[in-house]
Amino acid sequence: MNNKLWLCKGWWEGEWIYLTHHVGRDKQALIDKVMEQAAREKFHGTIDDRLKTLGWVLCEVEFKEVV
To answer: What is the 3-state secondary structure (H, E, C) of the chain?
Structure first.
């Protein structure tokens, strides 16, 4: 079972938070989601430009079950 997902992470009120509304099974899937939203907002630029504008970074997260 693959417990890894790609998420966006942003700086908010002095700490990094994971933005769970932007999730992808792989990095390209996440980039596609971010850029689809950017296109709907009429943003023109690269993924790097978009992430910089929003103050986000892409990160791979591994989830572990805790019981």
So the answer is: CCCEEEEEEEEECCEEEEEEEEEECCHHHHHHHHHHHHHHCCCCCCHHHHHHHHCEEEEEEECCCCC
- Do residues 2 and 60 lie in contact, with contact meaning Cβ atoms separated by under 8 Å? no
Domain membership of residue 19 as a residue range: 7-58
User: 0.85 exceeded by the pTM?
Assistant: no
Taking residues 27-43, what's their average pLDDT? 95
- Decide if 63 is inside a domain: no
